[in-house]
Amino acid sequence: MSAPSGKSCVCCCPLFSSSIGRKWIVALTGIVLILFVVGHLLGNLSIYLGPNAINSYASFLQSLGEILWVIRFVLLLCVGLHVFFTILLWHENMAANPRKYAVIDDLQTVIAARWMRLSGLVVLSFVIFHLAEFTWQSLNPQFKTFSDDHGRHDVYRMVIAGFSNPFVSGFYLIALALLALHLSHGIASLFQTLGLTTSKLRPLFERGGVIISWTLFAGYASIPLSVIFGILRYPHAVACPFCH
């Protein structure tokens, strides 16, 4: 059965075909991705406990086997849905309110919306780069040969070798800053979409979004900065492969 003339329809499900449903998809997938960002950071911070801690953490994740692949698939699906419906909603808003963007009557809203799109695309590019660098290890095949004294993959050495490259660390920090900007606006919008905000609560959610997003930035950014400034070092002083 075809969609009514003049109306776009992703599928027959109202959740996908209605504007409200699409906003809910963006909000719910956003929650999943925020929870992942928080959990991923907590795991990454184990690097400050030494090589054994983060290598044990990485070994535990690998021991999950098929469960880990299910988690990865769910996260990938959430990313795809989040990006697709965010872009779709933006195009619908443009088509419905062309004059809103021709005459800027709310500069702050327009700038925030543009930053959301730009930061989202840069962060998506960074995620792909990050996976290629540290998860797939396709950019640096030598990372696959790193192992510790227990025969586990030496994630500690890999992270230090990777972030010893100032270009990698620089791109990482820029992407993290854009992610923080993305989250600081997205968290407040998330509560509004779910109908949990009021005129009194909105400023609280906005401040909370800023605090949460930049706290996450500080946590993630501390790792490459610690490597660059020599706070985190490989115990056996293995030379960085990028320094040759």
Description:
The chain is built from 9 helices and no strands. It has 244 residues and is an all-alpha fold. The chain has a single domain, classed as Up-down Bundle (3 helical TM bundles of succinate and fumarate reductases). The longest helix has 31 residues. It is elongated, with a radius of gyration of 21 Å. It starts with 13 loop residues before the first helix and ends in a 16-residue tail after the last helix. The N terminus and C terminus are likely disordered.
Features:
disordered N terminus, mainly alpha, 244 residues, 3 helical TM bundles of succinate and fumarate reductases
The counted number of beta strands is 0
Q: Main sheet? A: none
Rg, rounded, reads 21 Å
Pattern of helices and strands: HHHHHHHHH
CATH fold label: 3 helical TM bundles of succinate and fumarate reductases
Whole-number average pLDDT?
A: 79
Q: How does the overall form come out from the CA principal axes?
A: elongated
CATH architecture: Up-down Bundle
CATH class categorisation: Mainly Alpha
